[in-house]
Amino acid sequence: xxxxxxxxxxxxxxxxxxxxxxxxxxxxxxxxxxxxxxxxxxxxxxxxxxxxxxxxxxxxxxxxxxxxxxxxxxxxxxxxxxxxxxxxxxxxxxxxxxxxxxxxxxxxxxxxxxxxxxxxxxxxxxxxxxxxxxxxxxxxxxxxxxxxxxxxxxxxxxxxxxxxxxxxxxxxxxxxxxxxxxxxxxxxxxxxxxxxxxxxxxxxxxxxxxxxxxxxxxxxxxxxxxxxxxxxxxxxxxxxxxxxxxxxxxxxxxxxxxxxxxxxxxxxxxxxxxxxxxxxxxxxxxxxxxxxxxxxxxxxxxxxxxxxxxxxxxxxxxxxxxxxxxxxxxxxxxxxxxxxxxxxxxxxxxxxxxxxxxxxxxxxxxxxxxxxxxxxxxxxxxxxxxxxxxxxxxxxxxxxxxxxxxxxxxxxxxxxxxxxxxxxxxxxxxxxxxxxxxxxxxxxxxxxxxxxxxxxx
Length: 457
Fold this sequence. Notes:
By secondary structure, the protein is of the alpha+beta class.
């Protein structure tokens, strides 16, 4: 397999992105000028073409990179936020899906050097068998299957040689990439988004930190009836190598084509894992990505990849749960008080409580409404628009709100979880499930009762 060099120079990497951004800027300016003489139908068609062109350029830009920009590609590959017209969406998703799954063609000899350097021993001394063909590609590495000398099947996650420098170059270019994305989603807060990504993406370069995160959740879910977090082989995990228990099951593409009951069950497990971790345990994976969970043959779901991880302060969890209670109960005045006291409103006196409540419910209605909701990609699209886009009726007041970094991370997890559930087209009364942590109510689903018994024991 030929070696595919990972470009690490900011000069060469910046040139690729800036040329794309400049071309899109010129097209946008031209579209704006000619729009003055167009009908509404013509303006809509021009907007769709501009979105499609920008989306194609984003795919091209991300496809030239092997570092942090790939994470953006992974997120976009399943988060359908109305970036492109409906008739082009399937093709766009296909291209981004290929980007998500594409692995750099790095020779195994180069990957072997990383393993042996990190573990300070020849490969044969560490593993009884090592399959040199990767079984999966991570954003900054590849995953291999191996067998230890004691007979255990393991997954070996190995960082690409040189990827750390590539990620640092991507971090320098991040603002430019986000500005390109802003042409599609004008409501994107480039500065806040860049700060949050920079604050988290660097952590993913340290697999020892990821091993710590994975061990924490493996302890929490040890013996859980339907959630599995593979054990880490601590003695063989280092900064650029992570060895953990091997799990095998059906991936997201297979799950999407199963029956409604199976998709509903999978959706509830995903919802319980990401939301439940956040609100029950204050620590959670920040990457609800469809490549990060597998349905095992026994019906349990395994979750992997904990590089992007967050521990939330208790006061923030309490604030968010209090906000959700006020929202569900329609208490606009209480919601305003919580946001004002919590520092989320720059000048509270300028905000009307009823408008804040309307804004909040447009983002959270799907799990604060007490009825069965059948989710789909279009719901994730609309929630994203309502949360951040100039098309939102709330955009004027959103510009004057303050969203601390911790809140941004929590909202990201909520949005991406919704996107996954929408892609699964899962159905449930999501509010009745969420009441377990919002109000401390007893469970009303079979999975909820199984989980309650687990926690009680």
